[in-house]
C-alpha cells in the first residue's frame, strides 16, 4: 500500500526533516529555554523515539519537563490529554497502553448529546479524539454498539455541515474518522467524499480554510507559492491522510 | 416517531397561542399571518396538524450535492416549491425518502448551527411535507422550540432589535418567524397524525 502511494520515498524525506529538526541545536535548546513550549518542541523527538532514535540532550529535556510536573498539569483539555498520553505511549515512555475508555470519557465527543453545540474547535477536538482512539486509522475504536451509532451519527451530521461550508480541512478529518470507524457509505457520505476529492487543485493542494482564490489572484505571482503553502499545507496533509486511510481501512474490515 | 416530548411542545404552542391572541395587527398581511398562526396552534394542539394541500405544481428536487452546497436563497426556493407542489409530486419511494430524510435533517441542523433558525424552520416544514423523518429533523424541531421567548413568540432577536430603531409595534418583527415555526410544527404534527391514522386504519382493516 505504502509503495503504491510512493510513500517510502516521502517518508524517508520526512524522517530526514524531523531528524534535522531534532539535531538542530537551536531548536533543541528551545525546550529548556522556553519550558512552556517543551512538549511541542519535544513532539518530533517523541515521534522518532519508537524508531530507536535517541538523543541525550532531548532525553534530558524530557526528564526535566516530566519532573516539572507540567507535562501532566490538569489544565489541559481532554483531547490534548489523549494526545499527550498517545505520544508518550508510542514513544515507549509508558509501561502500558493508556486506558482509552477513561481518557475518552472526559472528551467533548463522549459528552455531546447532539451535534448542534459543537463549534469549530470542538469539531477538531472530536476528529483528534478519534485519531488517537483509532491509532491514526490503524484500528477501529473500541466502542460499544450504542456508542458507535451515536458517534457515527454526530460525525455524519458534522460531515454535512462542513461539506456545506466547503471547510475541506474538517471535512477531510471527519471522513478519515468515518473510515477508521468502518462507517457504512451512505449517499451523503459518498457525496461528501467526492466533493472533498474534487476540491483538490491542479497544483496538487487541497484548499485550506483561509485560501480565497480571488485573493490569491490579486497577490503578486511571486507570492503565490508561499500563500498556497501557508494556507493549504495542513488540508493537503489531511487529503494524503484520507487517501492512506482509504487504503488502510480495507485491512481493518473483519 | 414522536419527535419532542408532547408536553414540552404543547406547552410551547399554548404560550405561542396566547401571544398571538394578545397582539392586534392592523395591516391585512399581519392579520392573515396571525390567523394562520392561530390555525396552526389549534391544529397542533388538537393533534391533527396542518397539511398544506400544495398546488398542482410539479417540482424536481436538485441532486443531494447541489442541495447541500446550494446557496441559502436556493434552499429556500426549493422549500417554497415543495409547499406549492402537488401531493403526487411530493411522493417518493422509500429508498429516496431515506436519503432525503438524512439530507434535509443534516442541512436543517447545519443552518441551525450557523444561527439561521428561519431556514431551519423552512427545511423542517418542507421535510414534513415530503413525509420525511429522521433523528436530525427531531433535533431541528427541538432547536426551533428553544427559540421561544418568555413572551411566547418565537425569535431570539433582541440583539438585532437593539441595533435598529423602528416605529413598528414591538411584536411585529416576531410575527413572521413565529408563524414560520408554527407552520413547520403543524406540518410535522400532521405527518405524525397521518402515521397514527394509517396505523389505525391498518388495525381496523385487520380486525
Throw out a few tags for this protein.
heterodimer; A: 254 residues; mainly alpha; 2 domains; 13 helices; 67% helix; 0% strand; B: 207 residues
Q: What features would you describe in this structure?
A:
The complex is a heterodimer of chains A (254) and B (207). Chain A has 2 domains: 1-74, no CATH class; 114-252, no CATH class. In chain A, 67% of the residues lie in helices and 0% in strands. Chain A has helices at residues 7-23, 25-33, 38-48, 56-68, 78-90, 100-105, 108-111, 120-133, 145-164, 168-181, 187-198, 213-218, 221-252. The model of chain A has no long low-confidence stretch (mean pLDDT 89). Chain B is mainly alpha-helical and 207 residues long. Chain B has 2 domains: 1-50 and 152-174, no CATH class; 54-133. Chain B is built from 10 helices and no strands. Chain B has helices spanning 6-21, 28-46, 64-69, 72-84, 87-90, 94-113, 117-129, 135-145, 158-163, 172-206. The chains are: A mainly alpha (254), B mainly alpha (207).
Question: Could you write a compact summary of the structure shown?
Answer:
With 254 residues, chain A is mainly α. Chain A has 13 helices and no strands. The model of chain A has no long low-confidence stretch (mean pLDDT 89).
Amino acid at each position: 500500500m505504502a509503495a503504491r502511494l510512493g510513500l517510502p520515498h516521502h517518508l524517508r524525506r520526512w524522517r530526514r526533516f524531523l531528524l534535522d529538526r531534532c539535531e538542530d541545536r537551536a531548536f533543541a535548546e528551545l525546550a529548556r529555554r522556553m519550558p512552556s513550549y517543551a512538549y511541542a518542541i519535544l513532539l518530533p523527538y517523541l515521534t522518532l523515539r519508537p524508531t530507536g532514535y535517541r538523543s541525550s540532550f532531548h532525553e534530558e529535556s524530557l526528564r526535566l519537563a516530566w519532573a516539572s510536573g507540567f507535562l501532566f498539569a490538569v489544565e489541559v483539555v481532554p483531547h490534548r490529554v489523549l494526545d499527550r498520553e498517545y505520544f508518550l505511549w508510542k514513544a515507549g515512555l509508558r509501561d502500558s497502553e493508556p486506558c482509552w475508555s477513561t481518557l475518552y470519557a472526559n472528551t467533548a465527543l463522549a459528552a455531546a448529546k447532539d451535534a448542534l453545540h459543537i463549534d469549530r474547535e470542538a469539531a477538531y477536538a472530536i476528529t483528534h479524539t478519534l485519531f488517537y482512539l483509532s491509532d491514526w486509522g490503524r484500528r477501529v475504536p473500541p466502542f460499544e454498539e450504542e456508542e458507535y451509532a451515536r458517534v457515527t451519527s454526530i460525525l455524519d451530521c458534522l460531515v454535512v455541515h462542513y461539506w456545506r461550508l466547503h471547510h475541506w480541512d474538517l471535512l477531510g478529518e471527519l471522513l478519515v474518522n468515518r473510515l477508521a470507524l468502518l462507517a457504512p457509505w451512505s449517499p451523503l457520505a459518498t457525496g461528501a467524499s467526492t466533493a472533498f476529492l474534487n476540491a483538490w487543485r491542479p497544483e496538487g493542494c487541497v484548499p485550506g480554510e483561509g485560501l480565497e482564490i480571488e485573493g490569491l489572484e490579486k497577490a503578486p505571482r511571486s507570492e503565490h507559492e508561499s500563500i498556497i503553502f501557508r494556507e493549504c499545507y495542513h488540508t493537503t496533509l489531511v487529503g494524503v491522510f484520507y487517501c492512506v486511510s482509504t487504503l488502510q481501512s480495507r485491512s481493518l474490515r473483519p | 416517531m414522536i419527535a419532542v416530548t408532547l408536553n414540552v411542545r404543547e406547552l410551547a404552542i399554548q404560550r405561542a397561542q396566547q401571544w398571538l391572541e394578545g397582539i392586534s395587527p392592523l395591516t391585512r398581511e399581519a392579520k392573515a399571518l396571525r390567523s394562520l398562526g392561530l390555525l396552526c396552534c389549534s391544529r397542533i394542539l388538537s393533534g391533527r396538524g396542518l397539511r398544506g394541500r400544495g398546488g398542482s405544481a410539479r417540482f424536481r428536487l436538485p441532486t443531494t450535492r447541489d442541495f447541500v452546497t446550494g446557496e441559502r436563497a436556493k434552499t429556500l426556493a426549493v422549500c417554497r416549491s415543495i409547499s406549492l407542489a402537488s401531493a403526487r409530486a411530493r411522493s417518493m419511494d422509500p429508498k429516496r425518502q431515506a436519503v432525503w430524510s438524512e439530507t434535509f435533517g443534516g442541512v436543517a441542523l447545519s443552518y441551525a448551527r450557523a444561527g439561521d433558525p428561519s431556514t431551519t424552520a423552512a427545511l423542517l416544514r418542507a421535510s414534513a411535507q415530503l413525509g420525511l423523518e429522521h433523528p436530525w429533523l427531531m433535533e431541528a424541531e427541538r432547536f426551533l422550540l428553544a427559540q421561544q421567548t418568555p413572551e411566547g413568540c418565537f425569535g431570539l432577536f433582541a440583539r438585532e432589535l437593539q441595533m435598529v430603531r423602528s416605529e413598528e409595534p414591538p411584536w411585529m418583527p416576531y410575527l413572521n418567524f413565529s408563524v414560520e415555526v408554527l407552520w413547520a410544527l403543524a406540518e410535522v404534527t400532521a405527518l405524525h397524525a397521518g402515521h397514527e391514522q394509517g396505523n389505525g386504519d391498518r388495525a381496523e382493516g385487520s380486525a
